Amino acid sequence: MMRSYFPILEWIQEYNKTLFKGDLSAGITVAVMLIPQGMAYAMIAGLPPVYGLYAAIFPQLIYAIMGSSRQLAVGP
User: Fold this and answer.
1) Dist. CA 56–CA 47, nearest whole Å
2) How far apart are CA 56 and CA 61, in angstroms?
3) Of 62, 40, 59, which Cα lies nearest the Cα of 49?
4) Are 52 and 76 within 8 A, CB to CB?
């Protein structure tokens, strides 16, 4: 039952260095685009830029743990 709510429990055992290298490259690419975008959205909304960082980072982390699709864009 836990695996249906937390898909990370299924694939984490098969995760290896080769997959990590690709994920690291993708993560850096996404961060380069997502951090300024999140900060800009917060400023447009009249909020401090740090709220944009929260909106950029936390959905990514939550989806990494609870998401089931390998190809999905998540962000502010």
Assistant:
1) 14
2) 9
3) 40
4) yes
Question: What is the pTM for the complete model shown?
Answer: 0.70
43 token code pair: 């400023």
Containing structural domain, residue 6: 2-66
Q: How many CB atoms lie within 10 A of CB 27?
A: 14
Please state the domain count of the chain: 1
Element (H, E) at 5: helix 2-5
Q: Is the dihedral of CA 68, 69, 70, 74 positive or negative?
A: negative
Q: Which amino acid is at 70?
A: R
Write the pLDDT tens digit of every residue in 31-71.
899 999 999 999 999 999 999 999 888 888 888 888 877 77
Residue 73 covered by a domain:
no
